[in-house]
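Handout, tutorial session.
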Amino acid sequence: MPSLAAGLDRHPGIWRGSELARTACPGIATGFAALDAELPGGGWPCGSLTEILPQHEGIGELRILGPALARLAAQGKCIAWIAPPHLPYAPALAAAGIGLERILIVKTAKDGDSLWAAEQALRSAACGGVLAWPRDIRFPQLRRLQLAAEDGRCLAVLFRPTQAAHEPSPAVLRIALATSAGGLALSILKRRGAPLSRPVFLPAAPPAAGNNPFSGFETHVDSHTPAAAAAGSVPARLALA
């Protein structure tokens, strides 16, 4: 019996209620030490859904993903953007170390097409990361995306409105974003492990530009530039009809 108990204690799917869960594979470092310290695996989870619920568009939801996306691009992995509300600012992506040749933007006409595209991108094993902005999604559809993320073993992030926090979700990580003292307050609504009662605070001012390749990333990428106005800044190879 003691050996059985010891084996269970080492199982990655079992953890004590007072600690973070163990993971079979390490997460992708977020680039923010305070956030990494509160996430099982020490970063963004791979092979499972993450939901980010911003207080409003452009608050910094892409800034917090910047370092991880740059790391994936540097590894030669593609990053799919499924139906983003605005076209990302290509010069800022390049300046942040995210190779434009690794970005795939999928434009869709309706929600069903967006969900189908996200599921195919997740299952393809061709993407290191999939970012999606579903406008209307139900639990069965979320479950399908969770299973697809498990198959693809990639970073899977859904951006949803704050009211979605009151709805059930199979996502293993849910983070609400709000402004606080000029910076960002990240409330971890759900994670595998002990709950976190306090928000994680990220200051607005990044380190000196010489030490931080993501300086200005939030300002330009999380902008409210309409797709039509931004189109001239995005190379044609970035967009897929």
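The second record follows below. Compare its token runs with those of the first.
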Amino acid sequence: MSDLTTVGDKDNWICWLCDKAVDQDASVNSDLGPSVDSFAATRVKKGSTAVERIAHRQCNTMKGKIAPVVPWPKEIFVVDPSPIFETVERLRKKGGREIIARCPGEQEANEASSWLLDRLSRLAPELTFETQVSSGGGQFVLALKLS
């Protein structure tokens, strides 16, 4: 396991799960204190490759109990958004393309697309994603796929 400071510096002290700042001076026993989270980033035939990321202690602990939730921002109007973390995990395992949200207008879809690509660059930096916005039925559909 790597040193807490090394992992925190690599991630700019931003929790990879909730995307909020982690106080590097907080106690590791505090809910909002720093914690190193190891997760299997790639599955290979004889095991997996672990990646270490910085997380709040609370976010890391909750991830063990329930699937992590990466929230969509309130200022971006999306309808029926798919759970981001689960979508990324499915694409990581199977590839392909998934519809991740619907938006009432093209501007909202483009804003959601920009935000999503930025957020995924921190959530899964080892993967490269692209989005596709298409119109249909009076709305705009946002699709996500691995590049």
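Points raised in discussion: Strands lie at 34-44, 47-56, 97-103, 129-136, 139-146.
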